[in-house]
Amino acid sequence: MDKSIKKYLVHLGLFLVTFFTTTLSGSFFIKGRMWGYTEYSWQDFLEGMQYSIPFLLILTVHEFGHYFTARYHKIKTTLPYYIPLPPFPLLIGTMGAIIRIKQFVQSKKEHFDIGLAGPLAGFVVAIGLLYYGYTNLPPAEYIYEIHPEYKEYGENYKEHFYNNDSVINVAVGKNLAILFFENYVADPSRIPDDNEFLHYPYIFAGFLALFFTALNLLPIGQLDGGHVLYGLVGAKWHSRIATIFFIGLLFYAGLGYVTPYQSYDQLLWSVPLYIAFLYFALRGLKKSGQTTLMLAMIIFSAQFLIALVKPGLEGFEGWLFFGLLIGRFLGVYHPKSPVEEPLDLKRQILGWLTLIIFIISFSPAPLIVN
């Protein structure tokens, strides 16, 4: 078989597997049905497509934004590699998709264009999906189809089920875009409760698309946001801003993770392990071992002190994983390009617009499990 055909089959195969896993995840989110865990039918699979098709559409538009822009600049690149996740409950079915640049990018402008095109294209489609979702919300009684047990309590079901320690509630942490749609677009009587958001596939897919957009637009390293920031301010200021943002991300993420209110036995192992974690993540700053350890100790001490003064103040632990991923694998800094020509006014406007998109798409705590 021809090598090029094999490559296309790999891309197609990964897409089909990802379509399958995201559709199974959609079935679980919408009706609580999961293949292999509960009774499952073909109808459940079809309903799951209400989540998988719009979500993968936005993901695909995002990646092909990168792809076609790279091809426009005559830079060799692969088609998107979709990354499926096992169809386990509460998993979204995918880790996203990536393309691989197969040659050295020569100029700052090319870095900027490629980095900007994906999130900008995906954001436009995500906003369109959210508009459709919020203008076509089902009646409030729809939730009784998902949770028949709520019907017995009527409008008071929240007081009974949300305050029950034996029930796991998963809520979304809304970003500015979601809040705009809820306050100015949707019928107030049909807006879902934060704890039931997962059962509304169009707006949940749109929310996840914005989360991935914000994740890619973090102004760090060679993430899409890092490319955009590098194009706007150059390598020197990118290094400074990315360093501050990276440390800030770790600091916020770890708030309330280790506190003086934990037992002595727990602190005995959690404190050194957490400091070691911070140390390995902060190695991405490429400082000396002594400086890195000192910085890790300062961050931990400040977080510990805040927990003592404000015991209820917590960050979002999920960002710790991304901090480690950036610090150890993706990198904090952006390399200089051989050609460092300034951007034209049109690109500068688009660049600052993209950073605004990051702000309105970012959720400090995207998913809250109680």
Keywords:
370 residues; mainly alpha; 2 domains; two-stranded antiparallel ribbon; 4 strands; globular
Q: Count up the domains.
A: 2
- In the predicted model, the low-confidence regions spanning at least 5 consecutive residues are none
Overall pLDDT score: 90
**Rg result:** 22 Å
Shape: globular
Oligomer: single chain
Total DSSP E strands:
4
**Number of DSSP helical runs:** 12
Structural class: mainly alpha
- Helical fraction equals 55-70%
Mind explaining what this structure looks like?
The chain has 370 residues and is mainly alpha-helical. The protein has 2 domains: 3-218 and 361-369, no CATH class; 235-340, no CATH class. It is 60% helix and 4% strand. It has helices at residues 3-31, 42-72, 108-135, 143-146, 157-161, 176-184, 201-216, 224-253, 264-282, 289-309, 318-330, 345-361; strands spanning 81-84, 94-98, 170-172, 367-369. The chain has a two-stranded antiparallel sheet. Helix 7 crosses helix 12. The model has no long low-confidence stretch (mean pLDDT 90).
Task: Please give the structural blueprint.
Blueprint: H1 3-31, H2 42-72, E1 81-84, E2 94-98, H3 108-135, H4 143-146, H5 157-161, E3 170-172, H6 176-184, H7 201-216, H8 224-253, H9 264-282, H10 289-309, H11 318-330, H12 345-361, E4 367-369
Antiparallel strand pairs: 1-2, 3-4
